[in-house]
Amino acid sequence: MKKITIFLFGILSIGYFTACNELEYPEAGSIADKTPPKAAFGYVASDTSYQEIAFTNFSISSTDYSWDLGNGQTSTEKNPSLRYEDGRYLVSLTSSDKLGLTSTTTDSVFIIKPVGKLQPTIQNPGFDIEGDNSYKDFWTNRDLSAIYNEMQITSSPVESGEKAAKLPSAGDRIGYQDFTVEENTDYIVNFYYTMKTSPVGSLTVDILDSHVTDPAALANRTIATGVYTDQTDADIYTKAQLEFNSGASTRVAIYFHNEGVECRTDTWSIDVK
Question: Which residues contact 50 (CB under 8 A, 6 or more apart)?
Fold first, then answer.
């Protein structure tokens, strides 16, 4: 009886440890089931060619990426770039985590040769992209943010979408985005803003003639400035505009900041005048 008992125990022990060895555990960096992946991306043409498309991955809770780039090519890079022929392409991104959960999103990419003046694009114009920088993607400048903090994000009030940018009354936060323009062209930047009714303060929007990394250079790089002071109602947005000429610049930047009063801004766009 003792031999049988020992033999059975040995089999059970071997089976137990074998089962344990076959268990699969989540790898480092995987996300719990309560925060599944969410796929999202944007794209923009390069500075030198409308056919060179750079994709920006805004997926959250994801560790792996699979792109169908719409022209027969695929990629597992986080942020691929690709040259396209003119036409319409259906691009899909599937993001996944180490638990095997996936999320897929699809968008149309139109490759059309510009006619006449280049139409610039303001990325994440309503602060609604929940990307790597929590709704601030495309609106930050790490060099300037070493001195001036990044803008905050608010859910109320908003002019459109779900979010807006917020600048507290301390006046130590900024918003910044640079983008491609055509030389010697007149443009109009459109946006909405609101601010608290007191104390008296202002929102300033500058157009800079290049990407700026040195805060000391801001004054010398400014080609247009608008100061906005409507404090009628903190819950109602006012539409505002700022005109500028690009001069010799092919890349300019929007730089906004406040003074004295809490401000919010939302829904940015740019038009050729």
Answer: 111, 112, 113, 114
**Per-residue 3-state assignment (H helix, E strand, C coil) for the chain:** CHHHHHHHHHHHHHHHHHHHHHCCCCCCCCCCCCCCCECCEEEEECCCCCCEEEEEECCECCCEEEEECCCCCEECCCCCEEECCCEEEEEEEEEECCCCCEEEEEEEEEECCCCCCCCCCCCCCCCCCCCCCCCCCCCCCHHHHCCCEECEEECCCCCCCCCEEEECCCCCEEEEEEEECCCCCEEEEEEEEEECCCCCCEEEEEEECCCCCCHHHHHHHEEEEEEECCCCCCCCCEEEEEEEECCCCCEEEEEEEEECCCEEEEEEEEEEC
How far apart are the C-alpha atoms of 35 and 27, rounded to whole Å? 16
pTM, entire model: 0.62
Span 38-61, pLDDT tens digits: 999 999 887 667 899 999 999 999
Domains plus CATH for the chain? 41-111 (2.60.40.10), 142-272 (2.60.120.260)
Q: CA 166, 202, 148 angle in degrees (round to 5)? A: 55
